[in-house]
């Protein structure tokens, strides 16, 4: 099987890119485990991305409601997520979050 067939599919929804359960090689390539960590308890809060953020969720479950949409994107453990610069949204954390993150 070719390497490209083993790659994880990246989905984009409402401007948010989600790569579910990327291979460890992909995480190593990005140096995800060396990124800073951030966490929060269950909560709901507005957020604006002043820079593109890539994050990798270790734990937790979040519904992200981008401004201008009547829908949400749900992310959870094992998701590698890219939020675009300028996105305004509301985070609804239903299970405490622990994630690595990097701003570009």
Protein described:
This protein has 104 residues and is mainly beta. The chain has one domain (10-103): Jelly Rolls. Helices cover 11% and strands 55% of the residues. It is built from two helices and eight strands, in the order H-E-E-H-E-E-E-E-E-E. Strands 1, 2, 3, 4, 5, 6, 7 and 8 form an eight-stranded antiparallel sheet that branches. It is globular, with a radius of gyration of 14 Å. Mean pLDDT is 93; it is low at 1-5.
**Total count of domains:** 1
Full CATH superfamily name: Jelly Rolls
Radius of gyration: 14 Å
CATH topology: Jelly Rolls
Q: Indicate the low-confidence ranges by residue numbers.
A: 1-5
Quaternary structure type? single chain
Approximate shape: globular
How would you summarize what this structure contains?
It contains 2 helices and 8 strands. It has 104 residues and is mainly beta. The chain has a single domain, classed as Jelly Rolls (Sandwich).
């Amino acid at each position: 099987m070719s390497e490209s067939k083993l790659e994880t599919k990246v989905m984009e929804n409402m401007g948010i890119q989600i790569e579910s359960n990327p291979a460890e090689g992909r995480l190593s390539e990005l140096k995800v485990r060396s990124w800073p960590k951030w966490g929060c308890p269950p909560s709901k809060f507005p957020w604006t991305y002043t820079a593109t953020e890539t994050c990798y969720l270790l734990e937790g479950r979040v519904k992200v409601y981008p401004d201008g949409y009547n829908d949400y994107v749900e992310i959870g453990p094992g998701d590698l997520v890219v939020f675009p610069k300028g996105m305004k949204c509301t985070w609804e954390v239903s299970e405490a979050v622990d994630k690595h993150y990097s701003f570009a």
